[in-house]
Specification:
Layout lengths: L1 H23 L16 E3 L5 E3 L8 E6 L6 H12 L1 H6 L2 E7 L3 H11 L5 E3 L4 H5 L13 E5 L5 E6 L3 H17 L1
Parallel strand pairs: 3-4, 4-5
Antiparallel strand pairs: 1-2, 3-6, 6-7
Helix pairs in contact: 2-6
């Protein structure tokens, strides 16, 4: 019986090392207003690469993370942004949605709700991790939005589960940024 117990030691040690490796590669801390925005890139619903570095200095970016396509809060937020797109374009704001869903899921979500902005397929969670937006309890993004100014710095962060709060706070933050 002692020999069998000793055989499991390497297996247990491997499991512990794997767990420690996961803990060591945890998500970055969430950027705050005034911090330099992490320069991320990802594939949109059509497989095209979108790079934040290509947009900084040209447009204000509303980078918003959401848990899952076709859920009530996520649909409400996406449709509210869609409905405000004319005003957002006047304010020179580019909207980019990010979730762990696939490009195919995003395509269907966009088509069903006539969304007029790209959605990045962050299937490995690297973009969410760069912004500290990964939900600790499941493999999804949390609902958090970042308004990134022309200077590449985070101008405002909304970290709230309520989609209505995100829309209201971002609208106010965009107006403040215009006046600055």
């Amino acid at each position: 019986m002692k020999i069998q117990s000793l055989r499991s030691v390497p297996l247990i040690a491997s499991a512990i090392l794997a767990l420690l490796g996961l803990l060591a590669t945890s998500a970055a801390e969430m950027p705050k207003a005034g911090d330099k925005a992490p320069l991320v890139s990802g594939k949109d619903q059509d497989g095209k690469t979108w790079n934040l570095a290509d947009v900084v200095g040209k447009k204000v970016v509303l980078l918003y993370f959401y848990p899952k396509d076709e859920t009530p809060g996520c649909t409400k937020e996406a449709c509210a942004l869609r409905d405000r797109m004319a005003d957002l374009k006047k304010d020179d704001v580019q909207v980019i949605g990010v979730s762990f869903d696939s490009g195919e899921s995003h395509k269907a979500f966009i088509a069903k709700h006539n969304l007029n902005f790209p959605l990045l397929a962050d299937t490995d969670g690297k973009i969410a991790d760069a912004y500290g937006a990964r939900n600790a309890t499941n493999n999804r993004a949390r609902r958090v939005s970042f308004l990134i100014g022309l200077d590449g710095k985070v101008a405002h962060v909304t970290d709230n589960k309520d989609a209505d709060v995100h829309i209201a706070e971002m609208q106010e933050a965009i107006q403040k940024l215009k006046k600055a």
